[in-house]
Write a structure and sequence with these properties.
mainly alpha, single chain, three-stranded antiparallel β-sheet
Length: 157
Amino acid sequence: MLLFLRIFTAALLVLYPLAWFAPLIRAGLLPLFGMSEISVVSGLQKLWQTDLFLALAVALFAIVAPIVKTVALLLLQMHSAERWLLPATHFLGRLAMADIFLIALYVTIFKSISIGRIEVGWGLYLFTFCVVAGIVVGHLTERVLDRHAAPLLAPAD
């Protein structure tokens, strides 16, 4: 089980960067104009020019939190980090989920004003998969670590 978790966690370290460059949404101002693809990276580039605070928040939610969490989980699985790091991974997972919530909120708002067109891209599904998989891996890692620590915590006879 631990080997599977390590492989899956390492795969997330590859899938996250792919999700950052994949199209999250395709948006167009009016039905007559073409659609432009927006990824995490291209969105960050635009935000960096217009709203530094929001750009930093998106970078934290979409890039820093998920990758730090994934690296921390891999270190825990390899017994190269202390167990106190595990609760921090839960917090980082919540930050990454906040990014998906914000994207969904923006898509909903944009669709409701009916000025343009917006379509969800495959990158949003990939990014969502990565975040949810990271949560599952975090939960399974905690269970595996608990199971391995149980004999150490047993009372002495």
